[in-house]
Specification:
Layout lengths: L1 H19 L12 E11 L2 H10 L10 E9 L6 E7 L3 E7 L4 E11 L7 E11 L6 E12 L4 E8 L2 H12 L6 E2 L2 E2 L4
Parallel strand pairs: 1-7, 7-9
Antiparallel strand pairs: 1-4, 2-3, 2-5, 5-6, 6-10, 7-8
Length: about 190
């Protein structure tokens, strides 16, 4: 009985630690990699959102939306790329491969309404950028996605520049000064 109580308390403690912790993983880019830094915010029609959340079986409407940013660099020990979860409005970190000083991102992020993995949509994060020599951490911008319709398709995407806030976030996460470079991104079609 004591063992069961101990295991129950241990489980609750671990869950509370993870629930209250922020995503502060330190990413170290390899020789042909960079870490991109950006922020994602999604705007939706609340009527569609509530209807589909109920239809898809969401039970806890009190949780905040989250999003998952994926690396495009595969971990050789795993079949899937690494990923990290962030709250709406938090800066994300993700690794990208650099080839001939170019990053070509054909990625997406998963937007999880109410932090529910069963109620998520894939939103594109496709871009290309030229990386200055020697740079390892690059800021790509703050993205606002406006989703509409029953399939939550992007109808508008805006990108703004909050470089100083991104740099503060990165240095607070790493605990040391970090060289962050602002890069201009362009659409893959250009």
């Amino acid at each position: 009985m004591k063992k069961r109580i101990f295991l129950l308390l241990l489980s609750v403690s671990v869950a509370l630690c993870f629930a209250e912790s922020k995503n502060t993983e330190i990413l170290t880019p390899g020789s042909k990699e960079v870490v991109i830094v950006g922020k994602i915010t999604v705007h939706t029609n609340d009527k569609n959102r509530e209807f589909f959340a109920k239809s898809w079986g969401v039970k806890d409407f009190s949780k905040a939306d989250t999003y998952v940013a994926f690396d495009e660099v595969k971990n050789p020990k795993k079949e899937m790329p690494e990923w990290r979860e962030y709250l709406q409005g938090e800066y994300f970190l993700a690794k990208r491969i650099v080839k001939d000083r170019q990053v070509v991102s054909k990625s997406r992020f998963a937007w999880c309404f109410y932090s529910d993995y069963d109620f998520q949509v894939a939103v594109p994060l496709n871009f290309k950028a030229t990386i200055p020599d020697g740079e390892k951490y690059v800021y790509i911008g703050d993205f606002d996605y406006y989703l509409d319709g029953s399939d939550f398709r992007p109808v508008k995407i805006t990108v703004s520049d909050s470089f100083d806030l991104a740099k503060e976030f990165l240095e607070a996460t790493y605990g040391v000064p970090v060289d962050l470079c602002r890069v201009e991104i362009s659409n893959l079609d250009e």
